[in-house]
Amino acid sequence: MQVRDAGTVVALIGVRGFGRTYLGPLENLVAREEARFAGGCDINPEAGADLPAGTVFYDDHKKMLESCHPDITIVATPPHTHFQLAVDALEVGSDVLLEKPPVVSTSQHARLAAAVRSSGRLCQVGFQAMAGEPMQRLLALVADGAIGAVTDIAVTGQWIRLDEYYRRSPWAGHRHLDGIVVADGVSTNPFAHPVMNALAVAQADDPEATPVALEVESYRCRDIATDDTVSARVHLSNGKRIHIALTLCAEEIVEPVVTVHATGGVARLGNTGTTLTIDGVVQDVSAERGRPLDNLLAHRRDPERAPLMVSLERTAAFTAYLEGMLNSPAPLRVPSEFLRQRPEEGSRRVILTGINQAISTAGEELALFSELGLKWARPPASVPLGRAE
């Protein structure tokens, strides 16, 4: 018998932007009498028109929290605003679903974790692939030693983003803006999901393992203040290594893949975390993306049968990685002779010649771009990583 939970009050901070992706799921939950969508908040007054009938619009999140008394508050705003909004929600007794990346420093992570503990509330992070069946199966296989001991993990991905992508908001294309850490970057924002997946796999059989050092080459192919192409190697305290090769200036789109090298086989989590193969054999798992909101609701109803899949605590390694990227040297500009550009969809597309093959080779050989001898690549910077507890 399905448990009805129509009394669960949900509020959304950030209606426009990524917050739009929550509107449909929230309406479905309301229709199934599993939640009540009480309020939505946005600094854009026109965002109220996006809300369904019966949901009250606010332009001040504190007023919404005080009026709606939400059981769950979804925070889908720019990353640098997450910490304070989450704390404000916890202080009124609300559980929190926090979009990725959860926060922008290990200090914020530690303080938010302390606030979660002292409030007695829950904080789930919106890394959707972590809640999907392919990732859950992979984590179980690694934890059980079914594919042997993991040694190395590769993260590869080639996407295309036009100049318009960096005009979507004032903080887009920046690591810092007006003295504030905003944390945009190819591996910390658009490709945050596969990086988080790799870190989780590295900890699956050793939850106490932490990232301790980062070798990083960051590049930019256009006039932005962050990277759009990255080659990096993360060293963990348990000896495992994660090799990262990503770009937003691809010749053609290749979806991200997390490749797990172990003593007893090779696992590949592909298609943005929706497929899983072991030694080339496709596993029988649902390709449906995970739903952190549904998991949070289920956990509230029955914590033993529905464990929280992406607690704030589980994302500490990602926050340490993100902080390391922010502390690394400014990205190097790729010389123009290695770039092509063309108009596309009313904007401009920049293409890094040969990057698809470079990323494929980097993933196969577990190598940095500079180790492949690419003419535009430079030796990596070494960055120590702090702990986010």
Short description:
This protein has 389 residues and is an alpha/beta fold. It is 26% helix and 28% strand.
Layout of secondary structure:
Blueprint: E1 9-13, H1 20-31, E2 36-41, E3 56-58, H2 61-68, E4 72-75, H3 82-91, E5 95-98, H4 106-119, E6 123-125, H5 133-143, E7 150-160, E8 176-177, E9 180-181, H6 192-203, E10 211-220, E11 229-236, E12 241-247, E13 249-262, E14 265-270, E15 275-278, E16 281-282, H7 292-301, H8 316-327, E17 332-333, E18 339-344, E19 347-352, H9 355-365, E20 381-384
Parallel strand pairs: 1-2, 1-4, 2-3, 4-5, 5-6, 7-12, 10-17
Antiparallel strand pairs: 7-13, 8-9, 10-11, 10-20, 11-12, 13-14, 14-15, 15-16, 18-19
Helix pairs in contact: 3-4
Notes on the protein architecture:
Strands 7, 10, 11, 12, 13, 14, 15, 16, 17 and 20 form a ten-stranded mixed sheet that branches. A six-stranded parallel sheet has the order 3-2-1-4-5-6, with helices on both faces. The chain has 389 residues and is of the alpha/beta class. Strand 5, helix 4 and strand 6 form a beta-alpha-beta unit. It has helices spanning 20-31, 61-68, 82-91, 106-119, 133-143, 192-203, 292-301, 316-327, 355-365; strands spanning 9-13, 36-41, 56-58, 72-75, 95-98, 123-125, 150-160, 176-177, 180-181, 211-220, 229-236, 241-247, 249-262, 265-270, 275-278, 281-282, 332-333, 339-344, 347-352, 381-384. The longest helix is centred in the first third of the chain and has 14 residues, at 106-119. Helix 3 (82-91) packs parallel to helix 4. The mean pLDDT is 96. It contains nine helices and 20 strands. The protein has two domains: 9-128, Rossmann fold (3-Layer(aba) Sandwich), CATH 3.40.50; 132-286 and 312-384, Dihydrodipicolinate Reductase, domain 2 (2-Layer Sandwich), CATH 3.30.360.10. 49% of the residues are buried. InterPro entries: Gfo/Idh/MocA-like_OxRdtase_N (IPR000683), Gfo/Idh/MocA_oxidrdct_glycsds (IPR050463), NAD(P)-bd_dom_sf (IPR036291). It comes from Phytoactinopolyspora halotolerans. Residues 10-127 form the Gfo/Idh/MocA-like oxidoreductase N-terminal domain.
